[in-house]
Structure formats: C-alpha cells, structure tokens
Amino acid sequence: MAFSIRAVSPAAAARAERQYDRLDTVSVLLCTRDRPELLAECLSSCAQLIHPPGIDIRVCVADNNEIAHEHNILQTAKRIGLSIDYCHEPRRGYASARNCALKLAIATHADLAVFLDDDSRADPRLVVEHVEAIRRYRADAVLGRIEGLSRRPREGRRVYRAGTGNISLQRWIYAPKPQGMGLRFDERLNLLGQEDREFFADVIRNGGVIQQSCLPVVHNSDAEEANPSSTARPFKARLSFAKMEGRNEVVVARIRHGFGKAIARLALRQTPQLQRGLTDAALSIAVRSVDGQRSKAKMEEARLRLAKVGAAISGFWRPGFERQAARCGQLVEVSHPSDPRTSS
Questions:
Q1: Among candidates 236, 261, 239, 255, which has minimal Cα distance to 311?
Q2: How far apart are the C-alpha atoms of 334 and 228, rounded to whole Å?
Q3: Angle at which helices 36-46 and 70-80 cross, to 10°
Q4: How far apart are CA 228 and CA 233, in angstroms?
Q5: Does the N-terminal or the C-terminal CB of the chain have fewer CB atoms within 10 Å?
C-alpha cells in the first residue's frame, strides 16, 4: 500500500486556525480624510458601543490626510472620552488607508476587525451583533446593514460581493503569514475604487465564508449624498458616476487579472446593461406622447446604462476615473492606474 504526504497550503493552515468562540479583542477600524466633523460624529457613536462580555474593544483611526491631523483627532477623541489607536498614511488612496487600518488591527492584537466609514454612526450593539453573528454562522466575515443607504438584506445569506461600510473579518484573513493569510487591499486601485470588492473576492478565493446579518447596524449621516447613483442627485452627477463605474470596472479587471478577465467581465456585466438601455430608450419614445414625465425618466435611465457600456469598452485602452471627483459630478482621469506610486 502506497502512502503520499501532501503539504498543507498556507491558506488551509491559516483557515484551520480560525476561532469562532475565542474572541478577546475587537478593533473598530475607521479610515478618514478631510472630514473632521463627520469623524467626530462617528467617534461619538463608537464611545457608546456596548462591550460583549469578556471582550475588549479598541477604536483605531487611519488618518489619510497628506499632513497628519494626529493632534486634532486625538483631541476630538479625548473630548468625547474615547481612547483611540492612531496611525497616519500620507499616501492618498482607499487601499492605502485601509491597509494602514489593518496594521492597527494587528498591533492591537485584534481577533476580529470591524470596518466602518467615517460618515456613519455605529449602533451601540454593533460589536455585540458582529460577534454573535460570527459565532452563529461560523463565518469568516459578517456583512452588516447600513441603515438608510441600502435595502434591508436577507438574514443569514451567503455573500459573494462585499464592501467595507460595515463588515467584520477574522484575524486569519489579515494576520501576517504564517499565522494568517496576510491579505491586503490592492494599492494599485487607490484612486479607482473597487479595492474593497477585490479584497473580499480574495477572501472567498482563499476559502473564506462571508455571511449577511441585518443585526449589526450603522446609520449613514446622509444616505442620499453617500449614494452617488441616487435619483435625488442631479442627472449630470449620476451620468459621471455611471461612466466612472463602467470604465473602472474594466480597468480594475485589466490591472488585477489581465485582458482575458477584463473581456469576460465586460461581456458578463455590460451585455445586460446594453439590452436594458436600448429597451428603456425604445420605451421612452413609445410613451412620449402620453406620459412626458415617464418618458423623460426612461430616457435618463437609458442614457445612464448606455454611457456605462461605452465607458466600459473604453476601459481597455484608457485609464480609469478618480472616484471621489466623479461623485462630485466631475471626471478626472487617473494618469497611470497600474502604478502603485500614483498619488495625484
């Protein structure tokens, strides 16, 4: 009888070490830039967090301002009566700031890290509910609910696309090897966005399970402002965001996975957009004489969808848009999105 010895992969070893019940420290991670008033509101809500029995909560702030605002942030926390852990990441970008926050999670020996946006307010039971959901579902990450920004999700469903607005993740995901997988946000995507989706796609590719729970809740300071595709926003701003989203999706796939993956993503995501855009345009023309308001709304939807498709096609040879500028209704090209040193 022949025996073979198969080496255990680092990913399998890291997953084997995951703990659902032994959670001693939870770090709440906040990334901020140029929003001191909103950060103060967020920190105030964190000061009201209920501590699960036997679990320590650490609040960590990653400052992404070009010049460190350490004194102001620490003074704000002190006025609130909150002790925080602080780090400064001068290189502008979503991925760099979140990687800085993960360094704080490691430094504070967090068994569970909870990402929040600086324009949200945490429900007092936020950490309690994340811990209970991790244990209930035996999950590696739990995606919570953002009140006022999204529809109420289905409790307990498996999640395959996630962002960092309200999510907890176990230590094995971000801890350095060999204790964990050492996953990080891709800094080539600093100005493009979608770095959080790509990060959690990496979690799933490495065997991680992400579950949805409605019980960990954060409240968004301004749901309409935070949602760039909201119909309450001017059409020009929504059109800018649609173009940015379409092109950046292809640019991100091209940077991360090559042209083959980008072509597949274009076909998968944009073919339905093209079909619905043409349908909306035809419907707009058909009802123009009987319902002018509906005709206008349908034509706007058609223009948004078709603009997104056109921008996606151009993503094969043109750089992406800077996300924050697109939210303000302006399109600013990123010169070299594949260069991790881009900081403009």
A1: 239
A2: 19
A3: 40
A4: 7
A5: N
Condensed to tens digits (0 to 9), the pLDDT of residues 200-222 reads 999 999 999 999 999 999 998 66
- Spans of all domains in the chain: 10-221, 235-327
| Residue count of the chain | 344
Contact 43, 116 (CB under 8 A): no
* Distance separating alpha carbons of residues 340 and 187, to the nearest angstrom: 6
pLDDT exceeds cutoff 90 at 98: yes
Cross-strand pairs, 288: none
Per-residue confidence band for 3, with pLDDT thresholds at 50, 70 and 90: very low
Q: Using CA atoms, how far apart are residues 343 and 89, in angstroms rounded to an integer? A: 12
d(CA 213, CA 178): 30
Q: How far apart are the first and last CA of the chain?
A: 63
Q: What's the CA gap between 226 and 327, in Å, rounded?
A: 9
The 10s digit of each residue's pLDDT in 310-329 is 999 999 999 999 987 887 77
Write out the two tokens for 148: 């006022």
In contact, 5 and 37? CB cutoff 8 Å: no
CATH class of 10-221: alpha beta
Give Cα 136 to chain centroid, integer Å: 24
Q: What mean pLDDT comes out for the span 121-126?
A: 96
- Where b means 16+ CB within 10 Å and e means fewer, 52-87 reads beeeebbbbbbbbbeeebeeebeebbeebebebbbb
Dihedral Cα 103, 109, 112, 114, nearest 10 deg: -40
Locate 21 and state its tokens: 């019940």
Reported as type and span, the H/E element at residue 169 is strand 166-170
